[in-house]
Amino acid sequence: MNENGTKHSFVLQPLVGFCDLMILLSCALLFQLSTEEYTHFVPFLVFSWIITTFVIGFYKVYRFTPLVKILALLFKQTFLLTICTFTFFGIYNEIDVVTLAVLEYAFLSMGFIALLKIVVFNLRKKYRKQFGRDTIRVIILGENAKTEQLKNFFSYNPAYGFQFIAHFDLRGGKTTIDDITAFVIEHKIHQVYCSVAELKNKEIKALINFADNNLVTLKFLPDNKDIFTKKMDFQYYGITPILALRTIPIDTPVNLFLKRALDIFFASLVVLGILSWLTPILAIIIPTTSKGPLFFKQKRNGIDGKEFYCYKFRSMTINTEANDQQAGKNDMRTTKLGKFLRRTSIDEFPQFYNVLLGDMSVVGPRPHMISHTNSFKNQVDKFMVRHLVKPGITGLAQVSGYRGGIETKLDIKNRVRFDIFYVENWSILMDLRIIAKTFFQVIYGDKKAY
To answer: What is the mean pLDDT of the chain?
Structure first.
């Protein structure tokens, strides 16, 4: 679950950003620049817009963001756009543009952008209120003035899309943490809001472990004590302060867009440049080495634990243990051609189709077969945290020495440790580094590829 409630805006927010740029470029025609001057102005404008909007968080508008904050962002961005435009014409002082023209451009273009931003924001609120869609199911733990404020916020603001389900009083021992966790699972709760003042450290730890292992977002209503050492995301719902326990870098519209763009780029390269000719060749060779289909498909767990079919070139003979037993060294089920495919990682190439379908990413935690997920989530603490992002063809754990079969419990623990680090510290640069390391592993070989 995306704690900011922005997962649905993966396409919408980048589309709004694109429209903003189109407005800026269209209004720039009012300067009546020559073709050469305009071609200089466009990249400068686009670059400065991307940098300034990123710095002030112009597109970080969530379901609980108040209108006054949006107006403040618009005011800041208008000021920055004006400064950037003046800077350009200061550098290219041979272009004859008067000060009034720059001000008219900045205010006209930002006026259209403000109109678009506010209209989209209000249409999304009406969509949630009238159709009851795009909702987040929430419960509140604790009975005090702050929890009552939050309850009223959820109840009186249906346009924000929070579906208030229940309110638990933790005093008196009538309700236990086990009761709450059972309720969360039974009623498919997405977010749990806890009053720190009414929770013991032991109870907080139990809730954190439960949330991590069940993909539930945990947020806190803080008291006056500085009891947390983690970096947390501090937010306001109306006038109620909220602490978000785990912030995920990829869970912003801009980062989701960049991640998806990178996936489509690399997947398209592989599908068009390699699979277009490799697939027909293997379609002839693989059935001659052992009877069966070209592709092997297996159900695995993806983002939010959802199941999907993961594709590979078949490297084994047809067997009944495929969905329960991982391939091991000198595995008798692996064909001679299959050994080559697995050693060179060619068997994994059909997963680029999974990337184009949106089930997987090029980089991310490797997906496990269903039986292993069901086993590991009960054995390895915080195992389910790795399902907060899309699974990958390669990942940080794989390029850090934890590729292939899981031989000891330490292997899966270390793999999960690297996966959680990736989830909490993701960046485009990290993805590019992992892709580069994977490429060299494929070229030079990996002793754990069997």
So the answer is: 84
